[in-house]
Amino acid sequence: MTAPFVAHAATRAPETGTRALIADRRAGESLPAELYVSREFFDLDVDEIFSRSWIFVATEAEITDPGDYVTITFSTRSVIVVRDDDGRVRAHHNVCRHRGARLLTEPSGSTGTLVCTYHSWTYGMDGRLEFADDQAPGFDKSCYSLRSVHVRTIGGLVFICLADDPPADIDEVAAVVEPYLTPHRLA
Predict the structure, then answer these.
(1) Higher pLDDT among residues 180 and 37, named by residue
(2) H or E stretch including 22?
(3) Closest Cα partner for 157 from 170, 168, 145?
(4) What CA–CA distance (Å, rounded) separates 178 from 184?
(5) SS (H, E, C) 122-156
């Protein structure tokens, strides 16, 4: 995805599938029509671009009090952005670690805990599993915390990144834009 467009190599044997369409694109020409309507290409875009980038998802003003949350959904992914009891902004995958059910279905709201409707597994705002009824002896709750998502606030704007190792340029972005955002008190 980040490779520059290259001229079509007439000698290369044709490939099949989405990656082949990308590899066979011609410099200076539109992408093949299939790439604009293909679910496979859309999923590839989400995986290769959106899941590896910092994405603006909310303002701090939307989650001013402890327990306030917004849910962000793109493609098959859902993320909870929440303010914890200490006033920090946190982000977690919106998936119960037990059976994979969505924890929150509303786009925004306020809650004291994150409770799965399937078996009532209960998580704190920090993502730690607080309650899981009827587990085997030796069950270690600390192994079943919610999967956290990288989150960063800049001048009252909330950004998330789903990558294991998010791009480090967020500090440079913050240094440039924060002086312009701060006077507007977006938080």
Answers:
(1) 180
(2) helix 18-23
(3) 170
(4) 10
(5) EECCCCCEEECCCCCCCCCHHHHCCCECEEEEECC
